[in-house]
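Hi team, as promised in this morning's meeting, here are the two structures we talked about. I've kept the exact order from the run log so nobody has to guess. The first one is mostly here for context; it's the second one we should focus on when we meet again. Sequence first, then the predicted structure tokens.
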Amino acid sequence: MTASLYLCTTMTEKILILDFGSQYTQLIARSIRELNVYCEIKPCLQPIQWDDTIKGVILSGSPFSVNEENAPSIDIAAIAAKVPVLGICYGAQLMAKNFGGEVAKSNIREYGRAFMEHNDREEKLLYDISAKSQVWMSHSDTIKRIPESFNIIATTENIPVAAFKSTTIAANPIFGLQFHPEVTHSLEGKQIIRNFLVHICNCQQDWTPAAFVQETVEKIKAQVGDKRVVMALSGGVDSTVAAELIHKAIGKNLFCIFVDNGLLRKDEFTTVLESYKHMGLNVKGVNAKDMFYGQLEGVSDPEQKRKIIGRLFIEVFQQEATQLTDISFLGQGTIYPDVIESVSVNGPSVTIKSHHNVGGLPEKMNMQLVEPLRFLFKDEVRRVGREIGISEIFLGRHPFPGPGLAIRILGAITPEKVAMLQDADAIYTEGLRESGLYDKVWQAGTILLPVQSVGVMGDERTYEFTVALRAVTSTDGMTADWAHLPYEFLAKMSNDIINRVKGINRVVYDISSKPPATIEWE
């Protein structure tokens, strides 16, 4: 079995978030991290591995009702015997039910903005919170009766139990909130979370990018020693920051491989390779585009394209890696959303999605994994990158799909189509930068459609391809809205692409949001 290098588990303090399946669970974690306290998300039914670093536990919301037959449940009293507990929405309702209270369908379903009222500003959880504070509700069940030994500490106009607590039922205090403090619509929600961390769990708020870098580098040194690590680079934020952290720890014992699959952005292979070398990374560039083009010829199905690209990448990477000697570790830029999105709420499995790692290679080559970013969110990766001095050329890059332009060319791939799309995409990307719009959108790209239409250039009739421009705003890619780019900018992009890229005579703009659409077209 492959061993993995878990790099954040020796923090002096951390909060555990038990995930019952809420869409907001990641927001809880991000709110805690932004307060410089380390936290981890665990499936609610996974046994807790207790140690002295755990300072408190938060129970998330859930799509379940606590009264459903198969609703997940845990022993809250056992947890509260060790550390303070905060239940949010479903977590609060489960708390009430487990200790003998009553939870039932609400006569008035509260969803959206509400105003929490309380009259004790010295209450630790609500310290320095306004007497009437806007919060965000999202539940159809409500707590009809709180258990004995619990006290109501806040209400709203529609529900009598917005927040409650007990300081006597267990060795540590227990709190419940029927609203979601982690969302931005709860205007003082972050302060409530801070109160739980600082005033109740006594967290020191000392988890910073600088502290992370120092601890991670020392951890890599201790685990890897004088052995060697091989790593695939993509030019993206995650692999670049991960490589630089490993490089800081072991220097030239890190061997990087950057594969040109022929599906990168225009001139990206050359420019990124040079940038890596300027960073001092020991990197080898491999031109494998002809192999990829040959295997992809005539293939239109997007899933088949992905599988071919993934298989070929593994073959190329393995061929290059096996030419190196004494390689014991495989470095990867896995980040926290890759981990928690693959974890079942009802089970302990923690399998990374296949497209986030070099599938099968660790076992084939008898290597252990080094994943220095495994517990970081994307915005935290960027902060760590800035801490260690990585250029904004890498840190500010938009996300780019693993299969590259293969899934932005709808239908079969040819070298001519790739070149056409690279040229159009380069014009669009440069236009976004020159107009000051690049950093205002989360991701942008150009899609070559399998559609040809009639056009007129001069006195000649044309029958050429159509491209779609895509730009979205988002925080993590889980949901996204189409970016409202200025009409004047879109008009200029259309004009520039049609005039400068032979083979394209029509440009459209995608105004679909996710959901129901996805960010990429394939």
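And here is the second protein, the one for discussion:
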Amino acid sequence: MSRLQERLTHLWAHEKASAALRVSIAFGAAMALCWHQQQLAAVPAIFLGIIASALAETDDNWLGRTKAVLLSLLCFAAAAAAVTLLFPYPLAFIACLAVATFGLTLLGALGERYASIAQGTVALAIYAAIGVDQAGPGDTVAAWRGALELLAGAAWYGLLSIVWTVLFANRPVRERMARLFAELGRYLQIKAALFEPVRHGDLHARRLALSEQNAKVVAALEATKNAIISRFGRSGRPGVQSGLYFRLYYMAQEFHERASSSHYPYEALIEAFFHSDVLYRGRRLLDLQGRACRALGEAIHLRRPFRYGERTRQAMVDLRESLDYLHAHGDAHDAGRRARLLGSLESLVGNLQAIDRRLSEDTLSDAPLDGMDLRLRDSSPHTLREMATRIGQQLSPTSVLFRHGLRMALALTAGYAVMQATDAENGFWILLTIAFVCRPSYGATRLRLVQRVAGTLVGLLATWALMQLFTGVEVQLLLALLAAVVFFVSRTDRYVLATAAITLMALLCFNLIGDGFVLIWPRLLDTVIGCAIAAAASFLVLPDWRGRQLHLVMARVLDASARYLAEVLGQYRSGMRDDLPYRVARRDMYNADAALSVALSNRLREPGRYRGDLDAAFRFLALSNTLLGYLSALGAHRGALDPDASAPLHAAGETLQRALADIAGALSRRQPLPAVDTDAESALAGQLEQADDSASGIDPRQRLVGNQLALLLRLLPELRAATDALAAPAGMDAAAAATG
């Protein structure tokens, strides 16, 4: 019995278990009611209404969810009524659909909630058109009944989601927190591979893998922050229950900063300590701490105590002893450089000790949060003026949402024209395919359309086989219910499976009111036509080529790095404060670096002639990751320094800030870099290194700051060379580069 309970506990704790159970209840109750009332013909419309409402669902507290449901239902009612009234007038219908799609897309500027409502509204409008088309011309009673059934399904799921939010208020926060520590654990384990003492190892590939994982950690941090804000607000006054989540979130931020730190080039450390076991022990400890973070995530998910492993504690002791041995048995040859190397290892060990100490504490207890600045930055607009300003900023061809909205509107218009010209039966599936396949970027659209076609083929084959095997209505209804649940649990990460499931559900439902077999070929043909139109729109209508925008993403990385450096240096003057301005600057830097990694991933899916110089772009990514590592090390060890002794350090820091800002400005404008006295920067780096080598009894923190600033100064020539390599070709039209 205990084993069964254990399995059920793990099953319920699964991230998608809550959504699966919720949609199962929604679809099952609707199907049972229709069966009891002998109104099986209403099942397709009610199911589609549930789907539209679920697409509009976002994480929120019960009050926010109630407001979102009411707004969704208002938009759904307006869309269903407009479609039903305008359907007999093709020009008015498609004009209204195109304008509404464009306007709803711009609502995405207000945040995820409004973007989801917009997506659900467009989907419901097309569902309503499918219902009117099925009812036939002139049958207004059936058309309005279908619209009401859609709204009934949407209202039923909205009510269920509100009740669910009340019953399981904090579950989404717990799930996102668990995912955050799982991603952090993977990051630490990938970082551990960089310390493997193997000569001629493929450090470049490991750095790219680390960069990709860093983007996942940044996304998990953002999702967790949004979940905390939606539940507990942004004022930083948590209650007893929410205090645990605030502490875990800030602990995750600290771990990320420490894990991102780089205190010396990895190649130099491997070469210098190749014959020592210190790097191996550091690698082992990082790997064990990564596993501990993943175990902490599982403990949060299952709501169980977390126990820090004894092996990890012993690994920390072994690393400390190995480093002490190096200090005691070092030779006098090149003592200055050896001191810098050992100082870098000391800083690394200090970071790992800090992580070890935090994991050793009673992590899941309700310890007090006195003295901590717990405010969170909430970037969502909260007044009508702020909302109007956000939307107004999107009314420009340079806006991604403007481009995407216009692209969607024109693609739907083209799809409707093809449907009318060919008199396609069930042709609104063309519009439905366009709505779900067309993405803001060409690369994402291309990936989605391939997945859509593949999933549709699988779904049609499964439908044909299952309708042959199971001819009874009862079994087909159960299969449709199962397919609907599979669609919702897989639509975010397994789109091929989700498409196959929704195809199966749609044809089984339509088989209740007709012959589902005759819809197989039209479904496939309409999907192919819709994908072709979406691909053409992404390629031809204001294409958002990443190559033309990449210089702006890179400039934001350097600009955010300069602002973060200013915050860090300020705390070396006044003392360590983990306050909101510092956390905002740190988060902006990590977000900018993650955005660069994502932009390069999207660029790989674009046509060859629009990719530009990918080698130069990835070299810049590697340099930006190195820059982030050096800056993170400064942030992880920040604290007040002696004002007199640290004056040269602050002067070097200001030189770095100006240099990073100048490079960022040149990148954003795609202009040549201004003339720079690189010899002076190199001399300054040499002075910092010489000061560290010659000074005896120097403050370890002061030595670390001097070493990190010297590393950053040495990195500037490489950043400038990468910037020159990415400069716009001669004669390139600047306006085209800006607007893409």
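Starting points for discussion:
The two ends are 62 Å apart (CA to CA).
Residues 729-740 have pLDDT under 50 and may be disordered.
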